[in-house]
Amino acid sequence: MTQDLIFPLPASAEQPTFVRALYDYSATDAACLAFRKGDVIELLERMESGWWDGLLNGERGWFPSNYVEVLPNGEEGQ
Fold first, then answer.
1. Residue 14 confidence (pLDDT)
2. Could you tell me which CDD domains the record lists for this protein (predicted)?
3. Any idea where the domains of the chain sit in the sequence?
4. Which residues contact 68 (CB under 8 A, 6 or more apart)?
5. How far apart (Å, rounded) are the C-alpha atoms in residues 21 and 13?
6. In the prediction, which pLDDT does 16 show?
7. C-alpha angle with apex 48: 47 to 50, nearest 5 degrees?
8. Contact call for residues 41 and 59 (beta carbons, < 8 A)
9. Would you state the pLDDT for residue 73?
10. For residue 30, what is the DSSP state?
11. How many CB atoms lie within 10 A of CB 42?
12. Could you give the CA distance from residue 4 to residue 38 in angstroms, rounded to a whole number?
């Protein structure tokens, strides 16, 4: 008799969300994420205050949401 193995899905099976920088942003402290216009950032968390948490080139930090545009799913590399 064989048993089927069940592999649970990851907690978040959704595709990651990416944003593209519309302007350069200089980090004001160590908790902020600096980027250049055109950079594509993985969005990790959105705060109602307008500050978003993101990941770029292995660096994680907060940035103002009005400096970026959300990309449709699947367009992170374009």
1. 67
2. SH3_Sdc25
3. 17-70
4. 19, 20, 21, 22, 41, 52
5. 25
6. 85
7. 75
8. no
9. 75
10. T
11. 14
12. 47
d(CA 8, CA 11): 9
Mapping DSSP to helix (H, G, I), strand (E, B) and coil, where does residue 40 land? strand
Per-residue pLDDT 10s for the chain (78 aa) are 444 554 454 455 567 899 999 999 999 899 999 999 999 999 999 998 999 999 999 999 999 999 999 998 756 655
Q: Which CATH class is domain 17-70?
A: mainly beta
d(CA 43, CA 25): 16
Residues 6 or more apart in contact with residue 75 via CB below 8 angstroms: 18
50-59 per-residue burial string, b: 16 or more CB within 10 A, e: under 16: eebbbebeee
Length of the chain, in residues:
78
